[in-house]
Every structure is written in structure tokens, then in C-alpha cells.
């Protein structure tokens, strides 16, 4: 199984990024192949000018196309997700998330912003035709601790429990995922079939 991990924060130090890293590490320990991207990896001019032909944008699109799932995290700004993330998602083809399982995650300053996942991020992911959209995880910034002085990043126990439950749901959804039909295989089967009237 291949999952693309996408960090939506434009900041180098980001609580949503910590949440995403912990989730990605959990998947990797269970044998999932993970390809990590962040909006900070991309040239700002490529994003702002919609350069679909940028080599990194092309590689990102190819990884998303090949992936079974998408793990995406964003900070919440002004009751919505990061604008840089929206700009990057706009570069994906119209049906980029067809046949994919998506787990959206977000972090914000208070619980007042928890609906940003449902009302801002999920509609964009749905427009990209995500096959299965999981409930998602929202974290208050105070629940996420940065790695410092030899101490690893950490999550509050309640958040850790919710995240692991969501990741188990993601793993189960990936396991039952139906791969897209190969049009060439269908054509071969139809042409080689015996027909009778």
C-alpha cells in the first residue's frame, strides 16, 4: 500500500506537521509505504502561477495518482485551511483522488475551529473525487508538544487515542480498497470471451 502524506502548513515549525509526522510514522511501522510532501517543498512561484509543468508538481501528481490513500494535515487560519495548501490542491487533476482513501487532519488554537475540517477542507477533497473520506482528526494546539532537547514530539493521551482510532480506520479502508479497473484488461477479456446466441 502506498500513502501520500501532505503537510499543509507554510511554517517550518507546525503543530499540524507534528500530527502528520506521528500519523505517518504509525503507518510506516505497519508496513505502509509513505511518500511525504509539504507545501514548503514547492516553489512559491510554481504554486502562485499554477505551473502544472513544474518537475516537482509533476512528481507530486504522479505519486498521488499511484497512491492508495492520502494523509493530509493543515493548520486552521481564519476558520479555514491554509491557503498555500488550497493552491497546491488546485494543481491536481479533477479526479485526482478517485479510488483513494483520505484521512484529513487539522490543528487550531481552540475547539471553535474544529468544523473547518468538515466545512472547508472536506468539500475540496470531495471535489477531487475522493473515494472514501474518513471522519478526520481535529487537534487543539495545546494537545501537541514539539520535540525539544532530546524529547520526541508528543500528543495528549486523548488526542493520541483519537488519532490511532482514525489510523486503524484508514488501515482497514486501505485493506478493503478495490483497485481501479484496468481498461486494457477489460478489453482483453471481452475480445477473448466466447459469445453464444
Automatic annotation (TrEMBL):
Keyword DNA damage included in the entry's annotation: no
Annotated region described as Disordered, given as residue ranges: 176-197
Q: Which domain of life is it from?
A: Bacteria
- Keyword terms: Flavoprotein, FMN, Oxidoreductase
One family from Pfam that matches here is FMN_red
Has the keyword Ion transport been applied to this entry? no
Signal peptide region = none
Q: Residue ranges of the NADPH-dependent FMN reductase-like domain? A: 1-142
Family in the record: Belongs to the SsuE family.
Q: Which NCBIfam families match?
A: FMN_reduc_SsuE (TIGR03567), PRK10569.1 (NF007859)
Q: What is this protein called?
A: NADPH-dependent FMN reductase
Amino acid at each position: 500500500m502506498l500513502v501520500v502524506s501532505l503537510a499543509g502548513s507554510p511554517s517550518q515549525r507546525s503543530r499540524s506537521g507534528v500530527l502528520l509526522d506521528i500519523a505517518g510514522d504509525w503507518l510506516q511501522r505497519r508496513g505502509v509505504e509513505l511518500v511525504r510532501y509539504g507545501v514548503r517543498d514547492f516553489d512559491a512561484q510554481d504554486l502562485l502561477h499554477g505551473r502544472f509543468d513544474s518537475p516537482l508538481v509533476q512528481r507530486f501528481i504522479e505519486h498521488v495518482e499511484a497512491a492508495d490513500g492520502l494523509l493530509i494535515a493543515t493548520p486552521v487560519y481564519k476558520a479555514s485551511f491554509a491557503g498555500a495548501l488550497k493552491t497546491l490542491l488546485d494543481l491536481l487533476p479533477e479526479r485526482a483522488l478517485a479510488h483513494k482513501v483520505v484521512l484529513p487532519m487539522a490543528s487550531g488554537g481552540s475547539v471553535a475551529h474544529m468544523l473547518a475540517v468538515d466545512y472547508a477542507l472536506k468539500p475540496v477533497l470531495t471535489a477531487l473525487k475522493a473515494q472514501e473520506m474518513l471522519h478526520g482528526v481535529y487537534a487543539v494546539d495545546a494537545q501537541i508538544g514539539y520535540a525539544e532537547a532530546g524529547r520526541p514530539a508528543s500528543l495528549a493521551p486523548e488526542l493520541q487515542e483519537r488519532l490511532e482510532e482514525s489510523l486503524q480506520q484508514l488501515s482497514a479502508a486501505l485493506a478493503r480498497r478495490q483497485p481501479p479497473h484496468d481498461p486494457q484488461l477489460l478489453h482483453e477479456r471481452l475480445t477473448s470471451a466466447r459469445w453464444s446466441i
